[in-house]
Amino acid sequence: MNKLKIFLTLLLFPICFTIIGQNPNLQDSVIIEKLRLANRLLLGNGHQQAFQLYLECADAGNAAAMNAVGIMKQRGWGTEVDEAGSIEWFEQAAATGYEKAYYNLFHIFAKALGVEQNFENAVDYLDTLYNSQHRAVALMYLGYYYYKGFGVEQNYQTAVNFFLQSAEFNNPDAFYFLGLCYRNGYGVPMDEETALYYLNLAAELGHYYSFEELEEESSEIIIEPKHISMNGENGNHEHEKLQIPKQYRQIEKQKLDDTILGEYVGTIVTYDYSGKNIVSKSDLKIMFEETRNGKIYGKWLENDTLFTDFEAILTDSTLQFIDTEYIRNERYSKYYARKWKFNNAILEKTETDSVSYLVGNIRQFDIIRKEPSKPLYVSLQKSKIADKAIDLDKEFLIAYPNPFDGEINILFSLEKEQNVNISVYDINGQLFDQQNLGVLNVGQHNYQLALSAPQGQYMLVVETDNKKITNLIIKK
After folding, report:
1. DSSP label of 389
2. pLDDT tens-digit readout, 46-99
3. Which of 147, 163, 261, 353 falls between 20 and 30 A from 295, CA-CA?
4. Are 378 and 461 part of one and the same domain?
5. Do 260 and 396 have their domain in common?
6. Exposed (0-12), middle (13-18) or buried (19+): which is 188, by Cβ within 10 Å?
7. At residue 386, what are phi and psi to the nearest 5 degrees?
8. pLDDT for the residue 454
9. CATH number, domain containing residue 141
10. Which of 119, 122, 174, 153 is nearest to 365 (CA)?
């Protein structure tokens, strides 16, 4: 199979270009003949003459011709490229109810062709196509957007519903995503047999990514979280019997200025589109080297292999990256590297017990597909010795998503079998709640914590027999 043909069918967004169709405007025989002649000229590379004929028919009120003029302006066929002008013609055609124009407008807003990318607008046009002759395509894209949370609130169950409806039209993309949902337990119970059934259906139809996924032996999720809850003063009074450790003091948000300079080491995690499951984890080192003229300059090193210099604008709590890109692989692009652009990073810097922490969220952007990455979370600690990095295989603590709303996932690692306590302290160092998890085995553990707490900053502490690991968390 040609390795260049690696993009999902659903991401190619072909422009609808059929000129003659079922439309009341085509009853005028003169317009019909002009459109037929324009079609022949277009096939024969007579683009300029074809454009003029389409324009005449469009000016006469023919919706199909309006759509054709929009396409030719968008692509520069027989006229200059004019993406803004093409949108005006698509909108005129859509105003008459011409379905192909709705599809083209969906494509334009989804892929930012002459407009600022707007997934909400794209979804609106998909909704219009829901009961049209393009229903199968609309169902697939609606499922895709709910799966990833583009333009709508992310919801795997809703996505599965749309995928199932699209699958009734024998859509290979729908089969593929149903396979992913059943393999990972997204919106449906995890079921490997059903996952393989759908992936094989997609593969039989030539779906490239299905072949790749069939090579995988397990879910993309690293560790499924166990559920625990902390109620604080509202529901758990055990904390009143506990003494407050003196080493915890007030945590203050600090401005990201020259105090951020230095080397930070830790972890970057990628989680699924719901933000509830870790799908990959990498070592990360960020070197903030200098500030100059309101900007900060440094280096980003991921897994000791992915490297890029960066330049960013520094605000109170945000790093606004400037033209920073790198190339990396992932599970769904194993055999080719994709180019990612860094968007803004929302960071919180805190200090406790003379240790500086930097935590926050980063979102990258897929330059080829023109869509945001999965959510990324960084958890870093400032190195006291420049060349001394934290061994992430021995100890780490990751809390995500952060900031969080109702629940937050806690991922940590143990070097040996030992007793584990999880504690949460408020901004004044007062113990909010504590829970003993008992004796846990060596390795990684993931817990989903339901924290009944007011909005604000808290210090999360995982304490074992011989050490404490801390992380700042923020309740929205």
Report:
1. -
2. 999 999 999 999 999 999 999 999 999 999 999 999 999 999 999 999 999 999
3. 353
4. yes
5. yes
6. middle
7. -55, -40
8. 81
9. 1.25.40.10
10. 119
